[in-house]
Amino acid sequence: MTGVLGAQVLISDVKTLSDAEIKELRRLVCEHLVVVIPGQSLTAQQQAEFSLRWGQPGQVPFIEPSPDHPNVIRVLKEAADGNAFNFGGSWHSDFSFQSTPPAFTMLHAIDIPPYGGDTLWASLVAAYNSLDQDRRNQCEGLTAVHTARDAYSRKMQPLHSGLSSMTIVCDDTADELEHHPLVCVHPETGRKVLFYNRAYVRDLDGLQDSAAAPMLDWLYSHTTEARFTCRHRWSVGDLAIWDNRSAQHYALNDYAGFRRELHRTTVAGTRPTMES
Question: Which domains does the chain have, with CATH numbers?
Answer without folding.
Answer: 7-267 (3.60.130.10)
